[in-house]
Amino acid sequence: MNWKRIAKYSLALWFAGFAVGFVQGLFVAQELAAAARYELIGNVAGFALYLAVFAHMAAGADGHPIAETVAAMAATTALSWLCSWALQALAPQIFDGAIGVLQVAVELALMAMAAIFGMGLGSYLRDRRRLRSV
Question: Rounded to whole angstroms, how far apart are CA atoms 94 and 123?
Fold first, then answer.
């Protein structure tokens, strides 16, 4: 496994999740329906970004795309937890609540689904590119 490549894609996943979360945080809805709509839009956007990262990762994989994908997901999750704890320690008045278990479960489920579909799409694109070059 190429750890430098895993670190690069882990950071890409983290930045994608951060960007979606940041934009979601800008929109605070007072009504339940609007809040649910914003959450759905954020989840779809996060899924699309994760899908693109995993597809790109699998398209360029040489050996073990599943192992590299799992390692990238684990590294991204660990980095997210570390950043969350650091922000809570640095600015407790702003970041007062811990990340909920449901939020983590939804994010991991989105990332896992994107990884499954992204690996399939990336592998298909990689094989198609190899067949065209022959």
Answer: 42
Task: Tell me the pLDDT tens digit for each residue of 83-128.
Answer: 888 888 888 887 776 677 888 888 899 999 999 999 999 999 988 9
Q: Angle, to 10 degrees, between the axis of helix 3-26 and the axis of helix 32-59?
A: 160
Contacts of 37 (CB under 8 A, 6+ apart): 29
Q: How many independent structural domains does the chain possess?
A: 1
Rounded to 5 degrees, what are φ and ψ at 98?
Answer: -75, 160
Distance (Å, whole) CA 28 – CA 113: 27
Among candidate residues 62, 66, 75, 63, the one with its CA nearest the CA of residue 9: 75
Domain ranges, residue 13: 3-133
